[in-house]
Amino acid sequence: MLLTRQSASKCATDIDNARTALTNAQSALTADDDSYDQLRNVIDLTKATYTAGNDNGVYSSDNWNAFKSAYEAAYTAIMAVGSGYQPNGTVTPLAVELQQAYDALLEEAQNSRVDTTALVEAITKANGMEAYETYFAPDTYANLTDAVANAKKAVWGTEENYGVPSAALQKTDENTQIVADQTAAVLAAIPALRINHDLHITSGAHYVSWNSILASYEALDGSNM
Known about the structure:
Layout: H1 2-27, H2 35-52, H3 61-79, H4 92-109, H5 117-127, H6 138-156, H7 173-189, E1 200-203, E2 206-209, H8 210-221
Antiparallel strand pairs: 1-2
């Protein structure tokens, strides 16, 4: 009887720990980014544009210089994380300023290029799943990363050109539909993510998987105590 009670207690603890881990993964599908995540996201979006430069004069000098300054300020802040995080929200103005400066470049380019706003938002949300990759079934996570990669190549030509306003498809009805289709594909892959029930999590001094916990529970539930 004592052994059975101990087993039941251990199983209950494992279930609680596993539930916490699964909740953390599932909450990533809807959670808002904190300020540093917001800053990283906008840097990821704009770094290819910064690297490409403006030697060809695609953007006005004023807009480019504002963007360049905002990017460098944001990059400096993110590189300073090694010295410690600032209070939550401190770097938000940097992210906002960089996003606004980038939007000004987009506005110039979108006179002749497709509107990629919705697709960028979808990719940003998909990128937010990366921190929880190990929680998801590998095949479903691979489907998500494939959808993102395909969207980048379809709209910007290469993954490396992602976010460069002047690299986006020319504005035509056909290309606008391509953007819409790629946006839908990325958005569909996010809720299609499935929790990896074979993932081993720490529960006390040992590792357990969700499937092993369920098996233990079923064995205990079916025993005569």
